[in-house]
């Protein structure tokens, strides 16, 4: 039986070129980047080259890039690091109710420390209201953190417009771009963001490596103490093989971004068309217009999410019910709760399909056909 992986929003397979690059580094370039001898200088060059590639990918400067252990650390450093360093300016933070838990839990931790957090609501497509943001913005607001594209339903927020609104205000603007990086055009100058989080394992790179973009002049409190790595902003000996793999993954992701977006959007259309052809009733969670091209979240009335996941897995189709970071949780998706309310049936019958490397139109068609069979069987 062919197994079809449609859970790329949770994590993605490592590209063969990335594996090859990492293996070579592990075999031959094992020096500590902080060492002054030739072995150290070789690995330091890998760090410098990667930092340049990461900066170029978002139109930033190499010194603006802090290498981290992934998106969660990048989010934590941006939210907690900035809030603590700048609390003399105020203790009010604005975020949304549909952020990744790396943001939400960071905000909850700050609330325990005496900060005040405003959680913006969203409409049924997952969009915030710009007017709500304007109304909640205060003189003592020091940070606004709003994700670029949602990891569960794919909704893209009006980041550029938010950046314009915050121009001239003391509040720093952070966006979690973990799910958008590699599929959307991210130019930090045009977006007017002060901080931006990214993770490698969403773009066919290794797990355990990511970065935080920090605009010139933005000061952060350290969360890790020890050495003076990352210009004294993040202590710890660098994970050089993963960093080298990250660099390779970024280069590959930038080769044909427009073609990739078109391909994934086409997969969405194919999937939806197949369901309609099989007379399967479903509802879209989110939007097709203002959405990440690779994320498709659908509600199937009359079904149960656990039964759907098990039956699809038995059919060789790997999908999810939402965020991978809450897998195994009995709690409903906080994103769907924010969009539809805590009593909505969508909380118990929604499935996320997400596309990526190695997926073909034939696979997507087969997955849609199998999904239709499972839905029809569960409704009988």
Automatic annotation (TrEMBL):
Transmembrane stretches, start-end: none
Q: Which PROSITE patterns match?
A: AA_TRANSFER_CLASS_5
Q: Name one GO molecular function term.
A: iron-sulfur cluster binding
Organism in which the protein naturally occurs:
Mesobacillus persicus
Q: Which Pfam families match?
A: Aminotran_5
User: Which keywords, in A-to-Z order, does the entry hold?
Assistant: Iron, Iron-sulfur, Metal-binding, Pyridoxal phosphate, Transferase
User: Which transformation does this protein catalyse, written as a reaction?
Assistant: (sulfur carrier)-H + L-cysteine = (sulfur carrier)-SH + L-alanine
Q: What is this protein called?
A: cysteine desulfurase
Coiled coil regions, renumbered to chain: none
